Amino acid sequence: MAQSAFVAADLTAEPVDDSESHVLQPLLDRCEDYHQVVYGRPALPDQARNIPSQRPPGLVPGQGHLFALRDARGTLAGMLEALRDYPAQGEWYLGLLLLAPEARGQGRGEAVLSAYEAHVRANGGRLLRLAVVERNTAARRFWERVGFQPEQWVGPIEHGLRWNRVLKMTKQLGPPPSA
After folding, report:
1. Rounded CA gap, 21 and 35, in Å?
2. I need a labelling partner for 78 at 20 to 30 A (CA). Which of 5, 22, 57, 100 fits?
3. Residue 39 in contact with residue 31, Cβ under 8 Å?
């Protein structure tokens, strides 16, 4: 079993090396609802393998983070992709938090986010950023419910077969808990 980065409810976040990102493809395939909303099509056969190459240029090694979220049986139940110190020192960009359809609606998303926030704070992060696609209303409600504040609408931006407006959102993080 891989070393865990953090634990949330019954899910363990295991780091995934960029060269192993293909292990996330079965999850992307199961999340067709998400891909239809954002991209207007199912996940491409090599979508997971391409995650690292879709990051912004100029990142240093180790700045991109990819986690497999596994349940107690070791089943891939979700993923989290993020960038450390992007776009600025102390600001972390949450590119994707995706749970399998059968893992949703049980408080796991909030649990993963809470554990990830603690991980970010413990590693010097003070602000989380993300962008949510306008037509992904369920995701926007989730991010607002967990404390993210709207910052700015941008786009439309091309995503697969769709052109989407996206809402940039931020969440200030408090200091890490005292030891």
Report:
1. 18
2. 57
3. no
Give helix then strand counts, H and E, for the chain: 4, 8
For residue 19, give every residue at least 6 positions away whose Cβ sits within 8 Å of its Cβ, in sequence order, or none.
none
Q: pLDDT for 50-72, tens place per residue?
A: 999 999 999 998 899 999 999 99
Q: Which two tokens stand for residue 50?
A: 């391409």
What are the residues whose beta carbons fall under 8 Å from the beta carbon of 128, sequence distance 6 or more?
A: 91, 92, 93, 94, 117, 120, 148, 170, 171, 173
* Among 81, 92, 94, 10, CA closest to 47: 81
Cβ 63 vs Cβ 84: under 8 Å: yes
Mind listing the pLDDT tens digit for each residue in 85-141?
Answer: 999 999 999 999 999 999 998 899 999 999 999 999 999 999 999 999 999 999 999
| 150 three-state secondary structure | strand
Name the amino acid, one letter, at 74.
G
pTM of the model: 0.92
